[in-house]
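agent: user wants the structure for Major facilitator superfamily (MFS) profile domain-containing protein from Glycine max. delegating to structure tool.
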Amino acid sequence: MAVGLAITSESGQNNGKITLYVVLSCMMAAMGGVIFGYDIGITGGVTSMEPFLKKFFHKVYLKMKLADDKVSNYCVFDSQLLTSFTSSLYVAGLVTSFFASYITKAFGRKPSIVVGGAAFLAGTGLGGAAFNVYMLIVGRLLLGVGVGFANQAVPLYLSEMALPRLRGAINNGFQLSIGIGALSANLINYGTEKIEGGWGWRMSLAMAAVPASVLTLGALFLPETPNSVIQRSHDKQKAKLMLQRIRGMEDVQAELDDLIKASSPSKTNNKQSLKLILKGRYRPQLVMALAIPFFQQVTGINVIAFYAPLLFRTIGLGESASLLSAVMTGVVGTGSTFISMFVVDKLGRRTLFMIGGIQMFVSQCIVGGIMALHLKDHGGLSKGYAFVVLVMICIYVAGFGWSWGPLGWLVPSEIFPLEIRSAGQSITVAVSFIFTFIVAQTFLSMLCHFRSGIFFFFGGWVVVMTTFVYYFLPETKSVPLEQMEKVWQEHWFWKRIVGEVSDRQHKGEI
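agent: tool returned. relaying tokens verbatim.
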């Protein structure tokens, strides 16, 4: 069944309709983002719950009780064991992403999504039933395996299923689903914290089984992408039938020809894509695969995502108020990502990067300034300043929500040629996990030592990344995946490298 509007690319190629088949498939695949977001949101919430801390991190619990007299506000939650609970997921995700690359390329996007959902479901069971910290961390490692597979396969799946003119909106659905997952987790944390008996944290952790079950079962019914069919089996007829179904039209020969042409290098390099991406002609894509996920993590967003309730407790809010404040930031983040879906294919990627970067930098400087001037080692902020901090953090989250949040996944997923697409996405996910782990593992210690300076630290990185995008990232909106190499050949900087490589290839030197 096909519904919606006919879409025509800038090159004049008719790319079909917005079909219900594609919409439902992408909604199901985007559940991979929900499990990731739920885990991010739930982790920050349960680590601020006193019964959870008392059971698993007793030293932190005691420091929190003594905070007013002996322990600095900034150092209450400084515990390597506590941060290991958060960051262990990303170690597992880092290792898993490379295995996921092989499975995604050799067996298809769909199997990776199924494996991701199943592993996450197993980790959920261990976490909810944990009776010691070791069970918690083993459960986190399984969750990391699930997230590693999902984050590697889902953005590729969404970009390959999408119409070129709507690729930004559909791929941004992954970040939207991350936001929905985080918001759901914050709401659940706020509710379970009020459960008498101190076992609400178990329900918070166990409820992750709901989106994980939906993803695992739903992924079994997902179609494979035409790109993957061509890459793995070279079955042109099967790919054509799938294209006709997802585009809602019979005449898909032009798009099929582009897919076949784009896949031809991958037939001879199927097992060497990680080596292939190191070649000179892919230098721009490799730089972006390394730089974009690194910059996404040093925005400081995971400080808010992981530790928002702890941060709000640092400035003097109570347990329940801290969780409610985290809900508010979750609403803002989800709403801004939703807005991004509607404007990313109109305004373009670079414009949103610029707007979001300026917004994040200004809000971080204001938060850092207020904390430097008014938050001492003991006592909290006044209600007025605490409210301003909350508002500025919401503005910061909104800036991330329509820039580096969704675009950090969108841009890498759309810039790689098919022959290196799975490898490139794996590098992107691996770099993201490396620096997510570093930030998660070190933030509470950095907060203790840097104090308010931590916000200026991340603000400085926002300036660097915004400058990088302005000079080195070409606009990719509306460009078909199979024609993406043109944006590098026409860019003021990259054309020197790509052009030189092309000339040497033509002469037979490489």
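agent: one observation worth passing along. Confidence is low (pLDDT under 50) at residues 1-14, 266-270.
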